[in-house]
Fold this sequence. Notes:
The complex is a heterodimer. By secondary structure, chain A is mostly helical. Chain A is 84% helix and 0% strand. Chain A has a domain at 74-106 and 122-253. The longest helix of chain A is centred in the N-terminal third of the chain and has 42 residues, at 3-44. The N and C termini of chain A lie far apart (59 Å). The mean pLDDT of chain A is 92. By secondary structure, chain B is an alpha+beta fold. In chain B, 64% of the residues lie in helices and 14% in strands. Chain B has helices at 2-10, 13-34, 133-179, 185-205, 209-235, 253-286, 292-320, 323-331, 336-379, and strands spanning 44-59, 65-77, 86-94, 108-113, 123-130. In chain B, helix 4 packs parallel to helix 6 (253-286), helix 5 (209-235) runs antiparallel to helix 6 (253-286) and helix 5 (209-235) runs antiparallel to helix 9 (336-379). Chains A and B meet through helix 1, helix 2, helix 3, helix 4 and helix 5 of A and strand 2, helix 3, helix 4, helix 5 and helix 6 of B.
Amino acid sequence: MNVLLLLAIILFVLMIFIGGKKGIRSFFSLFLNFAVIVLTILFMLDPHINPVIITLIACVLISYINLLFVNQINSKTIIAFISTIVTIVILLLFINFITEITMIQGFGVEESEELAVFSLYVGVDFVKIAASVIIMSTIGAIMDVSISITTSVNEIFHHNRSLQKKDLFLSGLNIGRDILGTDTNTLFFAFFGSYLGLLIWVKDLSYSYGEIINSKIFSTEIVTILCAGIGIALIIPITSWISASYLVKTKQKS
Amino acid sequence: MRAFINKIKDMSNRQHAFYVFITFCFIISIVFIYHNHSFYDKPIAKVTETSLLETTKTTDEHHNEDQLFTQHITAQLKNGEKKGKPIFLTNEYSSSGAYDHKFTVGKEVFVSIDKNTDKEGNLTGKITNVKRDKYIVIVAWIFIFTLLIIGKKQGQFTIISFIINILLLSYALDIYVNYTNTDSLLWISALLAILFTFTSLLFINGFNEKTYAAIVTTLFGTFFSLFIAHLAMWLTSENGLHYEEMQFLTRPYYLVFMAGLFIGSLGAVMDVAITMSSSIFELYERNHGISMKSLKKSGMDIGRDIMGTITNILFFAYLSGSIPMLILYLKNSSSLGYTLSMNLSLEIARALAGGIGVVLTIPISLYISIFFVNRKREKS
C-alpha cells in the first residue's frame, strides 16, 4: 500500500472522529486546495497569461473554499474573505517587486546537475512565478488570521453593541497580535522543516556567511519566510478595520 | 503631528531606549550593507552601462518558444586590487529567466576576472552571482518594522523568539556536522524540538499554567504524530515516497526527511496546543464553577474550528515551493501523473503527517489542559 494513501486514511478517520461533519468538510477542502494548485500550475504553463493574474484568481478560489465552503457563508466569513483578498493584492504587488530586485526566480547553481536534462528556455516568466510561490505558501496563514479576527470581533460586538468603530478596531488588533506569534511560528517551523536538508548541506560544505546570503537558493528561502511574516502582520489591521466598519455600519442601518 | 509627539511623550524610558536602539541598528546595518565590498574575497562590480547586442528566438524540442538576449555590460570594480577600474562583461539571458538574469544599471554582481585583458587592455570577465545581501537586509527590516508597528509587544516577542530559534538551529546543526556521527540527527532534532517548544511558548505566552499545559501537550503531540508517521512508513515499506526528488543531500535521505518532518509539524502542534490551553484556561477564569462536561465540549468546539485552518497552513507552506519545478517538468513534456508523484510525494507526506499531528493534539491538549485546570482548582 502507498504511504500517502495510508496517511490520508489516518488523517480522514481522525478528522471525522474529532471534527464530525466539519472534519469531513476540512478534509475535503484539502483535496479541493490540491486541485486548485494543480489547475493553477496548468494555467501557468501558458506563456501568454500573466502568472500574477492566475495567482490572484487561484487565491480567490482558495479563500472561497477555505473560508466560505468550510465555515459556510455568513457575514463573518464574507468579511474574512474580502480582507484576505485585499491583503493578497497588496502583498502580491510588494512581493512581485521584491522578487524582481532580488532576482530570486527559477533555480540556483546548486541545482544545475539536476537541471541538466531539462530545457530551461520554456517561455514562462519565472520572476512572476517566484512571486506567486511566496504568496501561495502564505495564504493558509493569512486566511487563518483573518477568520480568527472576524469571529472574535463579531463575538465582542454581540456582547456589547454600544462599542464604537475605533474600539472594535482596537480589539481586533489585540486579538490579531495574540495570534501573530503562534501563526508566524507555525510557518517558520514548517519552512525550517522543509529547508533542513539545505541547511545541513550549507553546513557540510561550509559556506561562508557571504555565500549563504547571496546564494539564490538560500535568499529565496529567507525572502519567503520574511514575506510570510509581513503578510501575517498586514492582514491584522486590514481585517480589523473592515470588520469594525462593517459591524458599525450594519448597526446604524437596523 | 501633535498626536505623534504626545505618543512619544507617553512612552516609557525603556520603550524609548528600545526604539532608539532599533533605529540605530537599522542605520548601521544599511550603511554597512552598502559599503561592505571590501569584506568579500570575490571581486564585485557595479553595472554602469548595458547595451543589448542581439536577440534570438528559440524553440526547444518540446515546442516551447523563448527569446534569448545577449547584453554587453560595463561595470566598475568595487573591491580588490583593481578597485575602481572598469570591467567588460557579456551576459546571456532569456525572457523566462529560469536560470539566468537580466542586469540593469546599478545592480551589483560577483565577477571572475579573466587573466588576460582584451586588445585595448581592458579587463574582461564573467558574472558568477548576483549580490543580493542588501536587498535581503532591506526586506528583513521591512519585516521587523511591520511586526513592531502592527504587533507592538507581541511583534517584538515574535522577532526575538524567531532569532533565538534560528540561532538554536544553526548551533545544533554546527554540533551535528562537526562533532557527532550521521545517525544522531534524529536525537539532535528531538532535543531541538524540546528547546524550540520551551523558547517559543514561553516567549509568546510567558510563565504560567497555560504555557506549561501547552508545552507538555506539544511534546506529546509531536512525538505521537512522528510515531504514527514512522509506523505508516514502516507498514507500507515507504512505498510511494520518491526520495530521489530530495535536493541538497549530504546525509542519508531518510534521516533528513524524518528530522524535517519532526521540526515541520512542531510549529503547527504548538499552535494548536497554545490556542486550546489559552481558551480552556480563559473559560475557567471567567467561570470558576464551570463543569467538566461543558469545558470538554467547548474545548472540542474550539479544536474543530482550528483543525482545518492549521492543517491548511502546513499544506500550502509545503506544496507551494515545488511549483517552479513542476512547471519545468510539465514544460519538458513530462506527464502530469509522473510530475506530481515525482515532485510532490514527500511534501504531501509531510503535510499529511503534520495534519495528523494537528488533529491528534486536539484531544491531548484538551485532557492535559483540564488536568492543569483541576490542579489549579484544588489549590484554590
